Amino acid sequence: MRRALKWIGWGLVLLVVVVIGTVWWLLRGSLPTLEGKQPMTGLQAEASVSRDALGVVTIDAASEADAMRALGLVHAQERYFEMDLMRRAAAGELSELFGAAAVPVDQRMRVHRLRARTDAHLAQAVGGNPQVVQAYVDGVNSGLQDLRVRPWPYLLLRQSPAAWTATDSVLTGLAMYADLQDPTNQNELAMRRIREVAPPALYALLSHDGTEWDAPLFGAARGNAVLPTADALRLSDDPRSSPTGGEEQDVHGSNNFAVAGALTADGRAILADDMHLGLRAPALWFRVRLRYPDPAAPGGRVDVSGFSLPGLPAIVVGSNGHVAWGFTNSYIDNADFVAVQAGAQGITTHEERIRVAGGADVVLRVRETAWGPILHERPDGSGEALRWTAQLPGAVRLDFADMARAGDLDQALQIADRAGIPTQNLLLADQHGRIAWRLIGARPDRAAACPPNGTTTIAPATCAPWAIRGDGSPALVDPPTQRLWTANGRVLDGADLAVAGNAGYDLGARGRQIRDDLAAKQRFSEHDLLAIQLDDRAVFLEHWWTLLRQVVGSSKDPALKRLEAASRQWEDHASADAVSYRITRGFRSKVQDIVSAALLAPARHRLGDDYLEPKLPQIEGVLWPLVSERPTHLLPPPYPSWDALLADAARQAEAELAEQGPDLAQRTWGERNTAAICHPISRALPAFAKPWLCMPADRLPGDRDMPRVQGPTFGASQRMVVSPGHEADGIIHMPGGQSGHPLSPFWGAGHEDWVHGKPTPFLPGETRYTLRLEPPTHR
After folding, report:
1. In what order do the strands lie in the sheet with 36-39?
2. DSSP state of 152
3. Which of 297, 391, 546, 684 is the most exposed place for a label (fewest CB within 10 A)?
4. Is 327's pLDDT higher than 60?
5. Do residues 587 and 656 make contact, with C-beta atoms less than 8 angstroms apart?
6. How many CA atoms lie within 13 A of 63 on its CB side?
7. CA 647 centroid distance within chain
């Protein structure tokens, strides 16, 4: 018996070793080859793929097509699963990988039928270099096939990756539309419905489109709202609604700013760009340098470095030695609803089949007008149809890759006219010391009689469906101040703003802080611009801390006394160890919840099931006048006074903090703002396995209303500071690392520099690995 048990024990050990070895072998099977020589079908001449210690790739090739073929191979071998998620997210096909849980997500996107629309207009989307796009597609599929084992996430999901197509590259671009714009256009519809039932004075408060924090490039700050008199509005006349207590919405956008050569020691223009998006491991972006001969480029050669998006054959933001470029989300109005009457003619019906892993297909019935799909339909057949720029031919045009060969500011602006991307604030700097801002990308070409109307557009029935255009957009070239900045707030004013519309410009606090940082100096270097990117001073919340101190200063309430003791020292920064910052932020959030709920209560009560929750990014322009002036007629019920409301908000904030522990002095901002940056597949794993697929749980400085935007899963998805022609002095950061494989030496590489703001060189470092790609006939 003993001997039998011994053999059983050794057998179990052997079995465990075999299982672990097999798993290890399978996982390592999807690691890319980093060194040696490798034939590649379709390659016209030898090319090389070099990697530095961080996994930053340099591709040297004999032509643009060969460079893109090699880029496709690298993207596929390092990031194919993430590329797959992008195309499936845009097309509404995630359920085919993840099963029934993803069906509602797919239905939200499938109603736009983006794959079918892309297939119908693929030639226009591919642009003027279809052979280059096809070379990239072939490179992707070659890279996938060359892996010994399919990418490791597919092993866990028990799925096989589908081949890549040119349509999928276009869908990757459309996925950015869905991330940067709202495919449901809910806020516009929510505000229209509120306008129909709310008193005019109340609607004016809710739709106030600016604050004292505005920092536009054109025009002046809107300023805070002028509060209505008691004759115009009394909140006590309407029912009270409970605060939602929800988190403030993340801003899907970015910061960028630039200084012209007149403000630097040697006449160089410098551009800074950091795009704020969801954070994950690996990073959304992929760092790469591309070098190849090109007769259309200055000096007959392209040498471009920056950030690519796996799935697209292009450098999205970067510098080519002559021009540097970067983006922020514009938040102009890119979608309109039109009312659909019951019994309307000209409606077509499409049946979209959603394939579901492990389950039966789900058929989505999409009813569509000439305006677009009907997103909201009532039992009588009436509803609202949505027209969105992403649905239309030209929304994605892969010609934007031509930016790699731009020789100066003027050429870059010409290329911008052909750009098919979500509408962005483009900032440019060139080697001659010039800078420019330009609204770039696909935007509605509305008729003059059918302009956007604030955030509440419902197009009149007389308006024809609009097309999209990318040329003729507003620009600011060679500004007199020698400085430019954008941060998702309102940029335009006057007639240009009337044409562009408003899809929810962000509070201007970030932009104003950047503007003021730029105005505070007369000479700049790359490190000075990095310091602005990392500026986590709590300028916006300082007056809220002063208000909090007034509320808790002499109170006998035990909870308020605890707040008073913990908030005496204002740290001035959203640093990881800040306590007063966290307390103040929570206090303001509670005040906003109470006041917003009261302002929205009349519409919520009158609309019932038709009520949609709006986003109110400019609510600070109403909130601060209310707590400063404290008008009795605008006091949210059932509070007897504004003092009582503010004290209750403070108590709520204290109770929320106390749930984390009784000692408020230990409730630091970093305790709440702790990184949770993980691989997408980590959600499907048991808790003990998740750390293997996550970056360290660092306590992060920064927040949303300051230049250093950082949250647990949201923030600067990249940082770049660069002067064209001086790339060797440039600085770059990227969270999450280059590789999507946790066994890769590049998993998380560079992430720690992003966390701590340590300057990383913009250009790739010393070569550690080189893979030589050869045509199949090479001897």
Report:
1. 36-39, 769-774, 47-51, 57-60, 286-293, 301-308, 315-319, 323-329, 424-430, 435-440, 475-477
2. H
3. 546
4. yes
5. no
6. 12
7. 36
Instruction: Tell me the residue length of the chain.
Output: 779
Residue 308 tokens read as 């690519």
Alpha carbons 182 and 150: distance in angstroms, whole number: 34
Beta bridge partners, 276, equal 253, 716
DSSP-derived pairing of the beta strands 458-459 and 475-477? unpaired
Token readout for 87 is 């195309």
| pLDDT at residue 697 tops 80 | yes
Triad 231, 237, 239: Cα angle to 5°:
150
- CA 731, CA 236: separation in Å to the nearest integer? 55
Distance in angstroms (rounded) separating the CA atoms of residues 193 and 604 = 10
pLDDT score of 245 more than 60: no
Closest alpha carbon to 393 in 107, 108, 126, 185: 126
CA distances from 622 to 248, 372, 584, 662 (A): 16, 35, 18, 34
- What is the reported pLDDT for 450? 85
The model's pTM is 0.94
pLDDT in tens, 606-651: 999 899 999 999 999 999 999 999 999 999 999 999 999 999 999 9
Average pLDDT (379-403) is 93
> Which ranges in 128-212 belong to alpha helices (H)?
130-146, 152-157, 166-180, 186-197, 200-206
Alpha-carbon dihedral angle through residues 190, 191, 196, 197, given to the nearest 10 degrees: 80
Geometric angle at alpha carbon 504, from 503 and 510, rounded to 5°: 135
Query: Which two structure tokens, joined as six digits, stand for 256?
Result: 């960028």
* pLDDT above 90: percentage of residues in the chain: 86
User: CB–CB of 168/592 below 8 Å?
Assistant: no
- CB neighbour class for 48 (10 Å; exposed up to 12, middle 13-18, buried from 19): middle
Q: Indicate if the pLDDT at residue 240 is higher than 60.
A: no
Task: Answer yes or no: are the C-beta atoms of 567 and 553 closer than 8 Å.
Answer: no
Q: What is the pLDDT of residues 61-100, one digit of tens each?
A: 999 999 999 999 999 999 999 999 999 999 999 999 999 9
Place of tokens 């340098």: 289
Q: Quickly state the pLDDT bin for 686 (edges 50, 70, 90).
A: confident
